[in-house]
Structures are given as structure tokens and as C-alpha cells.
Amino acid sequence: MQDAITTLIKNYDVTGRYLDRDAMDRLKSYFETGTARVQAAAAVNTNAAAIVKQAGSALFSDLPELIRPGGSAYTTRRYAACLRDMDYYLRYATYAWVAGNTDVLNERVLAGLRETYNSLNVAIGPTVIGIGILKDIVRTRVAEAGIENSAFLDEPFDHMIRELGETDV
């Protein structure tokens, strides 16, 4: 996993360039939001179980067919797996905030996930909806924690939604 700084320097090094104004602005932005990133991660970590539970309740309230016979979350085992996966998405989103980079999501979460879900007959659409619900809950929780500079919050969730989203609809 690389952070924003490592990725930026690597990209400039590969091309044999010095850091230019754009690179310096990106570094400055990363450092200016560093404290807020760590505070947001801490706020989420403290409330992770409650956030996942709230997101799961909202998802199953919006899409009750998921927990009915034949649904992706029908049976206790599949229901628990769904909540476990939501916890993974939330945890890796916090990693991405702190790193200032979504590469960790590609490496640890998204690589092969679509194929795995398809092989297990897990609906991807509701997964995407669940990630969106997580994003909304996190925004609210972080705001309640008094963290004002939170423009970075959406990026990992939006990245997961974009990568998992159905493109042939």
C-alpha cells in the first residue's frame, strides 16, 4: 500500500522529473488535511460496529427482499457475511483516508471481488447501495464529531461504488 506522498514521488521519479507546482500543491493539500483525516478515521473506528449495524439496518429496510428466502442475505450465515463485508469496506475506507490514496482499495478489496460475488450469487447492486449508505452515515458521524475539513470522506466510497457499479445496465 502506498500513501499519497509515495505515489506522487514514485510517479515523478519514473518520469525523471522534479516536483513541479502541481506536485507541491498536492503535497500541501495532503498535509493540510492530515489531521482531519486521522480524526475522521478515529471517529469512525470508535463507532465502527454501530455504523455497520446502522448501515445494515438501512439496507435491509430499503431492500427487504435481500433477507427473504432466496435473497443474498438470507440465512444467518449470509446475513453475517454481508455485515462483515460492510465492515471491510468501512475499514479500508479509513485506510484510504489516512493514506490519501485509494490504491489500498484496489489491492485489498476490489481485486477479484466482482468475480467472487458473481460466483457466490451475491448481488452486486445492493452491495453498491450499501456502500453508499455507509458513506452517508460516515459523513453524518464525522460532522457530529466536529471535523469540518472533510472533503476527502467521499473519495474511497465513490471509488468502490464506481469500480463495482454496473456498467451494462
UniProtKB/TrEMBL annotation:
<keyword id="KW-0602">Photosynthesis</keyword>
<dbReference type="GO" id="GO:0030089">
    <property type="term" value="C:phycobilisome"/>
</dbReference>
<keyword id="KW-0488">Methylation</keyword>
<keyword id="KW-0089">Bile pigment</keyword>
<dbReference type="InterPro" id="IPR012128">
    <property type="entry name" value="Phycobilisome_asu/bsu"/>
</dbReference>
<keyword id="KW-0249">Electron transport</keyword>
<keyword id="KW-0472">Membrane</keyword>
<keyword id="KW-0042">Antenna complex</keyword>
<dbReference type="InterPro" id="IPR038719">
    <property type="entry name" value="Phycobilisome_asu/bsu_sf"/>
</dbReference>
<dbReference type="GO" id="GO:0031676">
    <property type="term" value="C:plasma membrane-derived thylakoid membrane"/>
</dbReference>
<comment type="similarity">
    <text>Belongs to the phycobiliprotein family.</text>
</comment>
<protein>
    <submittedName>
        <fullName>Allophycocyanin subunit beta</fullName>
    </submittedName>
</protein>
<keyword id="KW-0157">Chromophore</keyword>
<keyword id="KW-0605">Phycobilisome</keyword>
<dbReference type="GO" id="GO:0015979">
    <property type="term" value="P:photosynthesis"/>
</dbReference>
<keyword id="KW-0813">Transport</keyword>
<feature type="binding site" description="covalent">
    <location>
        <position position="82"/>
    </location>
    <ligand>
        <name>(2R,3E)-phycocyanobilin</name>
    </ligand>
</feature>
<dbReference type="Pfam" id="PF00502">
    <property type="entry name" value="Phycobilisome"/>
</dbReference>
<feature type="binding site">
    <location>
        <position position="77"/>
    </location>
    <ligand>
        <name>(2R,3E)-phycocyanobilin</name>
    </ligand>
</feature>
<dbReference type="InterPro" id="IPR006245">
    <property type="entry name" value="Allophycocyanin_b"/>
</dbReference>
<dbReference type="InterPro" id="IPR009050">
    <property type="entry name" value="Globin-like_sf"/>
</dbReference>
<keyword id="KW-0793">Thylakoid</keyword>
